[in-house]
Amino acid sequence: MRKLKEIARLRFEAGRTLQEIAGAVGVARSTVQLTLQRMTEAGLSWPWPEPVDEAELERSLFTKPQPVARDAVPPPDFYQARAQLGRKGVTRSLLWLEYREQHAHGLGYSQFCDLFRRWSKTQDLVLRLQHAPGDKLFVDYAGQTMPVIAPRTGEICPAQVFVATQPGMCCMEHRRECVGLTSV
Question: Is the pTM of this model over 0.70?
């Protein structure tokens, strides 16, 4: 019980400070301040009419408001999003903008990305291949062009971009260091 009647009497009738009321009632000063603030917001003035039920008054001043139900927004289709991300020029940001066009009150960008990341972890897409160091070279076409400026003419020419990696090269570097080799 918050001793609402005593807090109100000490403040409005006796003119006591918040600290004095807190000491007299045995609660924190911030509790006294919050109680008086809520009484003011509720329009209560001193003296109260006699048939005041303090328990009912406490429920009316300190009940938590019920959350307002939001319209149910369907979650994004992450299967479709993953397929779209494989296309040239498609980013998560672009997918989120398309999602927000369809659902104006939908997820924010960070929540969209977080849920997509969590969903991706549930998809079992692991293929582990064993390669001998230096045995193969993997080359892939990046799909985009990069502008290259010719040094003599200054002409800008689009160049195709390829990315290459040689699996196991970190192991070869480690072996060279262990054996004492400095070059191949």
Answer: no
